[in-house]
Amino acid sequence: MTPFTYARARDAGDALRLGGAAGAKYLGGGTNLVDLMRETIERPGTLVDVTGLSSEIEELDDGSLLIGGATRNTALAAHRAVRTRYPVLSRAIIAGASAQIRNMATVGGNILQRTRCTYFYDDEGSRCNKRNPGQGCDAAEGFNRIHAILGASQSCVATHPSDMCVALASLGAVVHLRSAQGERTVELTELHRLPEDHPEIETLLAPGELITAIELPALAFSARSTYRKVRDRSSYAFALISVAGAIELDGDTVKDVRIALGGVAHKPWRAWKAEAALKGQPATPENFRAAAEAELADARALRDNGFKIELAKRTMVATLTELTEMKA
Ligand code: SF4
């Protein structure tokens, strides 16, 4: 591990002051960043501990939830309003990682965790454009069973590993950011980038910009929501495919629907095409399949991950079917 200095931020202003230094990184629970530091893939000069910042979960008058960026994953999944009004989020968090990691990991850190592409972590033996821009990508022609089927580029075929972010994408979450220039909000679906020619740039965060909170808008039908994760073993594994969904039915017709996919792309993937195909249509397995086909029409398989295209479609159909069978 490369030597670094450590500072604990008293508040957001203090964090920004400390985080503005060249080579500084914000530290949440450290469940990904410290691993990357041990491998010398990340070499921050200063770690700014932001776990003392807001970990409140506020229920606002308009029905939305405001979640502090330092909220631990366990606390968020267990919160009464999340379990009852946004069960998709609670289930997604519980599906991710071990209990010990969830106890440590913060919401802000979860959003900013980095890919688990094995070539990215192999800094002595593999070429990786994300780790060393311009070096090449050994995953593209290598063993790429877990890699992306949507939105990839020749530069990078990695996936985003977060389960929580898939649920947040389906719920229309908004990320609150603060920097020396002031405050702004960004849709979660816009925060992460597709790789294009610069996979080393993963979000639209500016240097030193801090995630202060996540806002979950009120959504009338989000109580009828769920998360389905397909993985190689039953616990503590990243998603091959995951689906977050919520549905509003008017009789047997889909009045509104939210769908997001995990394990498919460099970012949490909101299934806009599938949603558009389903709205106003009868909630039938045939229409669910047609919506899944529409969403995956642009999917591209690598050498080892062609199975993920059909798996994504089937997982979408299963999730939507489960939602229609839930009590409203
Ligand atoms: Fe690196 Fe992306 Fe290629 Fe993995 S897929 S080796 S992260 S460039």
What's the layout of helices and strands?
Elements: E1 5-8, H1 12-19, E2 24-27, H2 33-38, E3 46-49, E4 57-59, E5 65-68, H3 73-78, H4 80-85, H5 87-95, H6 99-104, H7 107-111, H8 118-121, H9 164-170, E6 174-179, E7 182-187, H10 188-191, E8 210-216, E9 225-230, E10 241-250, E11 253-262, E12 269-270, H11 272-278, H12 285-295, H13 307-325
Parallel strand pairs: 1-3, 2-3
Antiparallel strand pairs: 4-5, 5-8, 6-7, 6-8, 9-10, 10-11, 11-12
The structure holds iron/sulfur cluster.
The site of iron/sulfur cluster has 14 residues, from helix 8.
How is this structure best summarized?
The protein has 13 helices and twelve strands.
Write up this protein.
Among the domains are: 1-52, Uridine Diphospho-n-acetylenolpyruvylglucosamine Reductase, domain 2 (2-Layer Sandwich), CATH 3.30.43.10; 225-325, 2-Layer Sandwich (Enolase-like, domain 1). 30% of the residues lie in helices and 20% in strands. The protein has helices at 12-19, 33-38, 73-78, 80-85, 87-95, 99-104, 107-111, 118-121, 164-170, 188-191, 272-278, 285-295, 307-325, and strands at residues 5-8, 24-27, 46-49, 57-59, 65-68, 174-179, 182-187, 210-216, 225-230, 241-250, 253-262, 269-270. The strands form 3 sheets. The chain has a 5-stranded antiparallel β-sheet. It has a 4-stranded antiparallel β-sheet with strand order 9-10-11-12. The longest helix is centred in the C-terminal third of the chain and has 19 residues, at 307-325. It is globular and about 60 Å long. The protein starts with a strand and ends with a helix. Bound molecules: iron/sulfur cluster.
